[in-house]
From TrEMBL:
<dbReference type="InterPro" id="IPR013083">
    <property type="entry name" value="Znf_RING/FYVE/PHD"/>
</dbReference>
<protein>
    <submittedName>
        <fullName>B box-type domain-containing protein</fullName>
    </submittedName>
</protein>
<dbReference type="InterPro" id="IPR047153">
    <property type="entry name" value="TRIM45/56/19-like"/>
</dbReference>
<dbReference type="Pfam" id="PF00643">
    <property type="entry name" value="zf-B_box"/>
</dbReference>
<keyword id="KW-0479">Metal-binding</keyword>
<dbReference type="GO" id="GO:0008270">
    <property type="term" value="F:zinc ion binding"/>
</dbReference>
<feature type="domain" description="RING-type">
    <location>
        <begin position="9"/>
        <end position="48"/>
    </location>
</feature>
<dbReference type="InterPro" id="IPR001841">
    <property type="entry name" value="Znf_RING"/>
</dbReference>
<feature type="domain" description="B box-type">
    <location>
        <begin position="149"/>
        <end position="190"/>
    </location>
</feature>
<keyword id="KW-0862">Zinc</keyword>
<dbReference type="InterPro" id="IPR000315">
    <property type="entry name" value="Znf_B-box"/>
</dbReference>
<keyword id="KW-0863">Zinc-finger</keyword>
Length: 418
């Protein structure tokens, strides 16, 4: 039984106690409404709609309280699961006096809960004289259990609620229309209101199923896009690693080439310098030999011997002095510099390429940004008039799907700067 969700409080989320119905048709426990300031409007916790508080405060919806008490009773009668803890019986309040705990139910009134006093005083006279009673927790006869559609009784006049007030949107009895607070209000028969409500709810349920299908398809598309985004992200990172590894290999190759060029340039310079060094060493050795010979001649004791031998030495010195070492072709020892500023700037400016605004880009589909057309409006009764106005006079209510923007899930390619 999932109905208790419809009779739960919007604040405590428990089955509502003494329901207060707001203008938006959501309901709260009376204890929660009492916490609001006097005269201040009550904001619905669900739809945030504001409901003004009339003089004397908000009143308990007695008709809805009958429905709530009925479902409390059904929950109390529900058999607990074998593995779950047994449920404690929930006290059921009398549908008439709304004060005493109910001790029996009326079979003809489809299980209407009654206390002892109301059963013997009010419910045993006139129209109710032939009604029979049963225990408050006894099962209803099978014919009544087949359809849970009992006719509720007006808490104020004790009459069956055979009409529906279209202005107050609540079930009423004939006395409410004649002498009650619903005089002059637009009304319809309960059967017609029930039929209109079921038709309108069925139409909205069909619309919800359509919206469910479209939302499910959109969710599947988002999930597929998410998977594709993950895949493309991994591909992009693989591309980045591949390109960076390729750049690293190119840099290593270029480094080896530049080192080889530097070694070759050094070798060429040194070969030239070695030739010049050898020449200079040979000249230096010859000069040292001439100097040594001159010193030997100067140490001779016989001057005649010196005069005879000195001319040859002087001639050799003249010849040597006329042949000096050639220093006009000196080797340039400065090496060419290496400037990588431009290459570093290019690498620094390297960025992922942006996709072009086209639908097809080199092996992948790029989704352009677009807005999905809204769902066609639903022609039917709105929530504020359903089910009290027929479909032909219903207010057109446009149920628009949210605008959805497709996110491009193809990643940018790794491209060098232009």
């Amino acid at each position: 039984m999932r109905i208790p969700h419809e009779v739960s409080c919007a604040i405590c989320h428990e089955i509502v106690t003494d329901p207060i119905t707001l203008d938006c048709f959501h309901h709260l426990c009376a204890a929660h409404v009492a916490n609001f300031g006097n005269g201040d409007p009550v904001a619905c916790p669900i739809c945030k709609a504001s409901s003004p508080v009339p003089e004397g405060g908000l009143k308990v919806d007695t008709v809805k309280k009958i429905v709530v008490d009925y479902f409390k009773q059904q929950l109390a009668l529900k058999e607990p699961d074998e593995e779950s803890e047994p449920l404690r019986p929930i006290p059921v309040t009398c549908a008439y006096c709304e004060e005493q705990e109910a001790t029996r139910r009326c079979v003809e009134c489809h299980g209407q809960p009654l206390c002892e006093e109301c059963a013997t005083s009010t419910h045993s006279k006139g129209y109710f004289r032939e009604h029979t009673f049963m225990g408050v927790r006894d099962d209803l006869p099978k014919k009544d259990k087949e359809k849970d559609d009992f006719r509720m009784v007006c808490p104020e006049h004790g009459e069956k609620l055979e009409f529906y007030c279209c202005d107050c949107r609540t079930p009423i009895c004939s006395h409410c229309l004649i002498v009650g607070c619903h005089q002059g209000h637009e009304r319809t028969k309960m059967d017609e209101a029930i039929l209109t409500g079921k038709d309108t709810l069925g139409a909205w349920a069909q619309k919800m199923n359509q919206l469910k299908a479209s939302t499910k398809a959109l969710l599947e598309a988002f999930q597929a896009a998410d998977e594709e985004a993950i895949k493309n992200g991994e591909n992009q990172r693989s591309t980045v690693n591949y390109e960076m590894d390729h750049l690293r290999e190119m840099i290593e190759t270029k480094r080896r080439q530049l080192l080889q060029q530097s070694a070759l340039e050094e070798k060429q310079k040194r070969v030239q310098l070695q030739v010049q060094i050898q020449q200079a060493q040979a000249v230096l050795s010859e000069i040292e030999s001439l100097i040594s010979r001159s010193e030997d001649l100067l140490e001779l004791n016989c001057d005649h011997h010196f005069v005879v031998l000195v001319l040859q030495l002087i001639q050799d010195m003249k010849g040597r002095s006329s042949q000096q070492v050639d220093d006009r072709r000196r080797v340039n020892t400065a090496f060419r510099s290496l400037n990588t500023d431009q290459q570093v700037r290019v690498i620094g400016e390297l960025e992922l390429g942006y996709p072009q605004p086209v639908m097809q880009v080199l092996g992948g589909l790029v989704h352009q940004t677009e807005v999905v057309a809204p769902v066609a409006p639903f022609q039917g009764s709105s929530a504020t008039t359903m089910p009290y106005v027929s479909h032909s006079n219903g207010v057109q209510h446009a149920m628009m799907a949210p605008q959805v923007v497709h996110v491009g899930h193809v990643y940018r390619q790794s491209l060098p700067p232009q």
